[in-house]
Amino acid sequence: GSAPSGSLKQHGRSYWQPAREERQAASTNMPHLAAASALLCFTAQDFNATTAPHARQLQNMARMASMTSTSPTGETYHMRPTTPPKTGPAEPASTFDSLNVVLKHHVPIETCCSGAYGSDIWGYTSAATGKEWALMCYSTGMSAVDVQTGDVVTAPGFTSPLSPWKDIKVFGHHAYYVTEALDQPGIVVFDLSGLDSDPPYISDVGPAAIDNGGGPESSHNVVVDEVSGYLYRVGGWDKKKNVRMYDLNANPAAPEYIGKFGKGFIHDAQVITFASGPYAGKQVMFACKAVTGSHGLQIWDLTDKSAISLLGFDTWPGASYSHNVWVDVVTMRAYVGDEGIVYSQGTNSTLFEFDVSDLSSPSYVTSFTNGVGANSHNHIILGGRLYAANYASGMRVFDLSSRSEVGYFDTYPDGNGATFNGAWGAYVFPASRLVVVSDINRGLFILEDEGSLVPSPSPGPSPSPSPSPSPGEDWLEACKKNGKRCIELPKAQFEFNEPIEVGWKGASKDSFKVAITKEDKLPEKRKVRLFLHTPVKSSRGIQFDGDAAEGGKKDFPLAPGTYDAHLANKGKSKSGGLTFTITGGA
After folding, report:
1. Which among 59, 390, 409, 567 could bridge 101 via Cys, Cβ 3.0 to 4.6 Å?
2. Are strands 512-518 and 579-585 parallel, antiparallel or unpaired?
3. Lowest-pLDDT range, 105-109, 244-248, 424-428, 477-481?
């Protein structure tokens, strides 16, 4: 039969949304909810007005009203774009301002998102093929996008109740989709294994209902620890215990509810199972506590689900809205974004850094900014670089070793400011290092960070490490046996964009002082940066200026091992044909 008036129907399930006259009546009869009206989970298509829930949802709304003093600050202005979704085809790279970031594909909002506003994003890499897919959320659904081609795959017939807040994460070949909208199962599970088929497809596997732990169906974000196999729903509008836990290990298609915890509203989080060091084996949540007067960073020990404990808390000067956190496990520094500080205090996009080497005593260290007046939103860290989706200023790249901005791609060319247009979220694929960015108004952007640790060829099987030399066999012979390009010090030449193996005969040293020089003259007024890197260590970047006849010279310690060499070009044209010399020294 037909769906009820105002409802949304998919896969035989109707997700009830009240008809216009019911919403108006509810709004008229609930003046006591006026202060919480911006918290409503159903939002009009233009996001300039919110709608009231039907009778079954009034209990949840009453809870919201009682939380107005402890809900995240700024909800009266939160997430109302002033620019409608942009129609039309993909736009060329020349439309967007950028630095050291290249546009690979733009998938316009009509193609990736059915013309609806974009929301959060994540990535999926097939374990069988190595193929990478962006999982693009939007206000009424989700799609998967091939990052190499820009081709879009949708779940047939899937429609989610209208809400700007959607989020998705993965475990194995399953994806877990949540929304703040009520009357959708608390978690919708998708099977992504069909993306390896020809043609690729996505299956909505349910569940039709899920244990919400006594709370509403809504969640602001979803967090998955892929190591331990646990999922956490956060931002469920329960000021006491709004984190709901699920075990994915027994049946990933049907998450098993195991309990809830929390202290204050948790807006977003990252969960890490530590593999080594003093916290080896510990499952730890780094959480953004977003409560008026008490915004900050919480750290929770989740290892024993029956005895979860809050380890520590700290905040920063002038905290306005604790929004997003990501941890660099190499340095044990956590970086928190404040979504409200630009809007409420007139400052610039700012990141707040914490020392979390002692989980029981996180310590605020410093803050840094790129000097751009745009609201901060979501960020992620990979390889010592932080990728931030900062609304109207687009995607920004920070080198955490220097706390400086080293690149950007402005996905919203219509101006900066404290608006809620532009880039919502970012994800970086570990293999290709391609960056995918969801934009509220313009859809999906697939980008290449020219200064990242690796170039971005199509992903494939990881190369096997070179064998250690056998007794009586030197390094060079062992390297060549593995079919690699081998660079033997004290002197060898190589071209860029190729893997090289670095070592020396009979050497027992852990590192070696080297100098890299350029043999060819660069084109006039050109600048390139040469990067040598290993898959797990930071890049060694050497800057050469175009007006130098010999290019330049840089000394640094280089350890034996496999390196990739590639160039980042600061201009638009390619600088082909350059060769470099690596020279050994004591």
Report:
1. 409
2. antiparallel
3. 477-481
H/E element holding 389? strand 385-389
- Residue 394 near residue 95 (C-beta atoms within 8 A): no
Collapsing DSSP to helix, strand or coil, 365 comes out as strand
DSSP string, 502-567: EE-TT---S-EEEEEEE-SPPPTT-EEEEEEE-SSSPPEEEEEETT-SS--EEEEEE-SEEEEEEE
pLDDT tens for residues 117-176? Answer: 999 999 999 999 999 999 999 999 999 999 999 999 999 889 999 999 999 999 999 999
What distance in Å separates the CA atoms of residue 561 and residue 389, rounded to the nearest whole number? 34
Residue 299 burial by Cβ neighbours in a 10 Å radius (0-12, 13-18, 19+) = buried
What are the structure tokens assigned to 392, written together? 């109207």
CA–CA distance, 541 with 530 (Å, rounded to integer): 6
Report the C-alpha gap between 491 and 143 in whole angstroms: 51
Q: What 3-state class would DSSP assign to 322?
A: strand
What does the pLDDT average to over 253-278?
Answer: 94
pTM of the predicted model, to two decimals?
Answer: 0.70
Q: How far apart are CA 126 and CA 481, in angstroms?
A: 31
Q: Which residues of 41-78 are buried (b: 16+ CB within 10 A; e: fewer)?
A: bbbeeebeebbbbbeebeebbebbbebbebbbbbbeeb
In the chain, how many H helices and how many E strands? 5, 40
Quote the pLDDT of residue 451: 86
Tokens of 358: 């002692």
Length of the chain: 586
Peptide bond into 199 cis (omega under 30): yes
Dist. CA 222–CA 188, nearest whole Å: 11
DSSP string of 205-262? EE-S----TTS-S--SEEEEETTTTEEEEE--S-SS--EEEEE-SS-TTSPEEEEEE-
pLDDT band at 77 (very low <50, low <70, confident <90, very high): very low
Tokens of 216: 């509403």
How far apart are the C-alpha atoms of 266 and 235, rounded to whole Å?
A: 6
First to last CA, the chain: 81
3-state secondary structure of 481: helix
Q: For the chain, what percentages of helix, strand and coil (3-state, to nearest 5) are there? A: 10, 40, 50
Is residue 37 pLDDT above 50, yes or no? no
Q: Mean pLDDT of all residues in the chain?
A: 76
Ramachandran assignment for 66, one of left (phi > 0), alpha (psi -120 to 50 degrees), beta (any other): alpha
Q: Which residues of 507-528 are buried (b: 16+ CB within 10 A; e: fewer)?
A: eeeeebebbbebeeebeeebbb
- Beta pairing class for 512-518 and 498-503: unpaired
Q: How far is CA 238 from the centre of its chain?
A: 25
Write down the pLDDT at residue 452.
82
Mean pLDDT in residue range 105-110: 98
384 secondary structure, DSSP code: T
Contact predicate 163/116, CB 8 Å: no
DSSP per-residue letters across 133-181 = EEEEEETTEEEEEETTT--EEE-TT----S-S-EEEEEETTEEEEEES-
Residues 6+ apart with CB under 8 A from 436: 121, 123, 134, 136, 145, 147, 426, 427, 429, 444, 445, 446, 447
